[in-house]
Amino acid sequence: MNTKIEVLVIIATLTLLGLFVINRNKRAIVTFFLSILGVLLFEFLFDPLVMNNKFHSWTYIFHDVCFILTLGWVCIITASSVIVNFTFKRSGELKKFLLTLCMIDVMALPAEVFLVYYGFRTYSPGLLKAMGIYQSFLEHDNGLIPVKWLIVPPEFIVSIPLLFGLILSFVKYWEYVIYEKK
After folding, report:
1. CA 27/CA 134 separation, integer angstroms
2. Beta strand pairing call for 65-66 and 60-62
3. Coil, helix or strand at residue 97
4. Which of 85, 116, 122 shows the shortest CA–CA distance to 100?
5. What total of structural domains would you count in the chain?
6. 62, β-bridge pairs
7. C-beta separation of 80 from 100 below 8 A
8. What is the mean pLDDT of each successive set of 10 residues along the chain, which is 182 residues long?
9. Shortest CA distance to 53 belongs to which of 130, 151, 145, 120?
10. Enclosing domain of residue 153
11. The pTM is what?
12. Which candidate, 12, 35, 62, 65, has a CA 20 to 30 Å from the CA of 44?
């Protein structure tokens, strides 16, 4: 992988975290660290199903779990949560949850497409077979897909919001435990 992208993710993460610290936004900092826990939990859970490739060796923290991807997902989750919570302060939690999830999906789906297209992420053959998707579907120039960027199978377009819904639920649950139960 290009070191520039890895450095860009690290800079974006430090910038986001720095903004929270400068603005003394403790809730955003808590959301950031809860997001790290949630993303890592699901990265370990889905480790056999998704392979992360082409990253520099120093970015892997366990098997193919890459902290660069973890930081990227965490930035998307945290930024979405902070923006929605700020913009819709008086809205109910369900509405804020759904809006946050929509915002996450708008950013995460193109990121996933980018990762798959450039070979940074591949799906296990067993997973593709179980879902009825064959590797030929993911080949770039097979004529099956007229636009090269539409290489994520429809099943994954549904599963990405579900996965991030689980991660966001984890974060929101622990936010509730931390802030509401005092």
Report:
1. 43
2. antiparallel
3. helix
4. 85
5. 1
6. 65
7. yes
8. 80 90 90 95 86 88 90 95 93 94 92 83 76 52 45 72 93 91 62
9. 120
10. 3-179
11. 0.84
12. 12
Q: Which two tokens stand for residue 129?
A: 């077979």
Report residue 115 as tokens.
């990762």
How many other CB atoms are found less than 10 A from the CB of residue 35? Answer: 25
Reported as a single tens digit per residue, the pLDDT across 57-99 is 888 998 888 999 999 999 999 999 999 999 999 999 999 999 9
Tokens of 31: 């959301």
What amino acid occupies position 179? Y
Task: Classify each residue of 51-77 as buried b or exposed e, where b means 16 or more C-beta atoms within 10 Å of its C-beta.
Answer: ebeebeeebeeeebbbbbbbbbbbbbb
Tokens of 156: 């994954």
* Amino acid letter, residue 53: N
Q: Which two tokens stand for residue 16?
A: 């986001």
**Best CA proximity match to 138, nearest among 63, 129, 108:** 129
Nearest-angstrom CA–CA distance, 120 and 56: 11
The length of the chain, given as a count of residues: 182
Q: Which two tokens stand for residue 81?
A: 């949560």
SS3 of 109, please? helix
- DSSP for residue 181: -
